[in-house]
Each structure stands twice: as structure tokens, then as C-alpha cells.
From TrEMBL:
Its EC number is 2.1.2.2. Keywords: Purine biosynthesis, Transferase. It holds the Pfam family Formyl_trans_N. It comes from the Bacteria. Transmembrane segments: none annotated. Residues 21-219 form the Formyl transferase N-terminal domain. This is phosphoribosylglycinamide formyltransferase 1. One of its GO terms (biological process) is 'de novo' IMP biosynthetic process. Pathway: Purine metabolism; IMP biosynthesis via de novo pathway; N(2)-formyl-N(1)-(5-phospho-D-ribosyl)glycinamide from N(1)-(5-phospho-D-ribosyl)glycinamide (10-formyl THF route): step 1/1. The lineage of its organism: Bacteria, Pseudomonadati, Planctomycetota, Phycisphaerae, Phycisphaerales. Coiled coil: none annotated. GO terms for molecular function: phosphoribosylglycinamide formyltransferase activity. One of its GO terms (cellular component) is cytosol.
Length: 237
């Protein structure tokens, strides 16, 4: 008698382009995006940015300034830098009444730009993931899920909770996004110690070093077809 897990067929996330085309969604400082751009530049991640989508004006302004500092030209929507040319879109969460309306506009850009994989890079809003992008959206979370995840758990809130609980090990998790915050299948996790006397800022800095390795590594594994999803788990070949 097969158990529930073995009766589910493995899913391989679809990657049509080589190099893989990424839609990167941001809401904050853009440090996660900057790391991806650096890793592409250094040849450590074989990927192309198809589009960057910002859910608030602050993120749009910050990333525009960062790219302008690194590149030659800055258009209204299209940015040319040494990383190539891609569109930076503003899709502001505050302009939409529902998660569904907001997500529809985002995924229209994702489709238009021929993106294979959507990377939530410090993206703070809930998304409705449409069927054609199920198993094609990944998120990086600054803790070891399933601990310290869910609504309200983002950025420094996570590291403050980690310090308050006196945990000894923290880290980051890259996971596929499903329809709720932080519950999708885990691709990989990297750990770091939490030391006596650490402040949330200390933990954030140590976890972020791990994030800078984990996110590009997970993207490259997906691009190379090494990741399959079975039910709520992933397998790495
Ligand atoms: N469908 C999914 N959407 C999102 C996921 C996901 O796994 N599935 N992950 C989050 C990212 N996330 C942490 O990794 C996270 C981000 C934000 C929050 C949160 O509590 N947000 C606030 C709203 C903030 C805003 O819109 O500006 C809230 O809901 O009150 C929790 C987890 C991204 N989306
Ligand atoms: N739940 C998502 C979350 O907490 N994301 C966290 O935001 C920081 C990067 O922000 P930035 O890329 O906007 O600078 C990162 O620590 C990332 O893990």
C-alpha cells in the first residue's frame, strides 16, 4: 500500500530559458536584489534579471538610485546597467483593494517579461499565486522555518523574536511560496550561531551573510533542474 507521499508525482519547476530569467520582487532596501546582481556579475549565478517589481515607492526609489550608481543609463521604466537592461516596475500594494487584484498585475508583468522564476527578495506582501506560476515562486526568509515565520514575521521582527527566545542557532530558509506566508516546500536552509549578548542587529548581520549564499545557490539549483517537489517536500539531485 503506497503512503500518501509516494503516491504524489514529483514536480520539476519549468525553466524555459538558459540562462534562467528572474522576476525579482522587492519591498525594502533591495540588499537581496543587490546580492543577486553581484553574484550574476561575478559569474557565480548564471541568470538574467527579466524584471524588478517594487511594491512600494521607497523600494522603487532605493533600487533606482542603486542601479543608477552602478550603470550608465536610467530610464523611467527601463534601466540599463552593467547587469543588462530590464524593466523596474512599481506595483504599489496601497493602490489595490485586494491581494488578488494586486497579484494579477504583478503576474501579468512576470508573464510579459518571460520570467521563469519569481524571487521574493524582501517582499512584504501576500501574493495570490496563479496556477501557471505554482512551483515557480521562491522566497527567502531570515529564520529557520517553520520557526519564526508567518504573519508579522519579517525583517527585524524575526531577529528580535530569535533573541527574545534565547535560541542558539538561527539562519535562513529558501522555500517555494504557496498561498500562505512561509509554509511552502523548503529548498535549502543555512545556519549560524546566536551568541550570548547578541543584539537583533548582530543576528541580522550574521543571518544575512548566509542569505547571500543560500538564495543564489537555490536559484542555480532550480535553473539546473536539480530540484523536484513532492507534496510539501523537495528533493535535490
Ligand atoms: N503567497 C505567499 N506570499 C508571500 C510569501 C509566501 O510564502 N507566500 N512570503 C512572504 C515573505 N515573508 C517572509 O518571508 C513575509 C513578509 C511579510 C509578512 C507580513 O506580516 N506582512 C504584513 C504586510 C506588510 C505589507 O504589505 O507591507 C502583514 O501581512 O501584516 C509576513 C511574511 C511574501 N509573500
Ligand atoms: N519575510 C521576508 C523577509 O523578512 N525578508 C528579509 O528582508 C531582508 C532584506 O531586505 P532587502 O532585500 O529589502 O534589503 C532580508 O533579511 C530578508 O530575509
Amino acid at each position: 500500500m503506497p503512503d500518501a507521499q509516494s503516491s504524489v508525482s514529483p514536480i520539476v519547476p519549468a525553466v524555459k530559458n538558459n540562462p534562467i530569467r528572474l522576476a525579482v520582487l522587492i519591498s525594502g532596501g533591495g540588499t537581496t536584489l543587490t546580492n543577486l546582481l553581484d553574484k550574476i556579475d561575478e559569474g557565480k549565478l548564471k541568470a538574467q534579471i527579466a524584471t524588478v517589481i517594487c511594491s512600494n515607492s521607497k523600494a522603487y526609489e532605493k533600487i533606482s538610485a542603486k542601479l543608477a550608481g552602478r550603470g550608465e543609463a536610467l530610464g523611467k521604466k527601463e534601466m540599463t546597467s552593467r547587469y543588462g537592461t530590464f524593466e523596474v516596475q512599481k506595483v504599489l500594494r496601497k493602490d489595490f483593494e485586494t491581494t488578488s487584484q494586486f497579484s494579477d498585475v504583478i503576474f501579468n508583468f512576470v508573464r510579459e517579461t518571460g520570467s521563469d522564476l519569481v524571487c521574493l527578495a524582501g517582499f512584504l506582501s501576500l501574493l495570490d499565486i496563479p496556477d501557471d506560476y505554482a512551483n515557480q515562486v521562491i522566497n527567502i526568509h531570515p529564520a529557520l522555518l517553520p520557526s519564526f515565520g508567518g504573519k508579522g514575521m519579517h525583517g527585524m521582527h524575526v531577529h528580535s523574536a530569535v533573541v527574545d527566545h534565547g535560541v542558539k542557532i538561527s539562519g535562513c530558509t529558501v522555500h517555494f511560496a504557496d498561498q500562505t506566508y512561509d509554509t511552502g516546500p523548503i529548498v535549502l536552509q543555512k545556519t549560524c550561531p546566536v551568541l550570548t549578548g547578541d543584539t537583533p542587529d548582530d543576528v541580522q548581520a550574521r543571518v544575512f551573510e548566509q542569505e547571500c549564499e543560500a538564495f543564489p545557490e537555490a536559484i542555480q539549483m532550480i535553473a539546473d533542474g536539480r530540484v523536484t517537489i513532492t507534496g510539501r517536500t523537495t528533493q535535490i539531485q
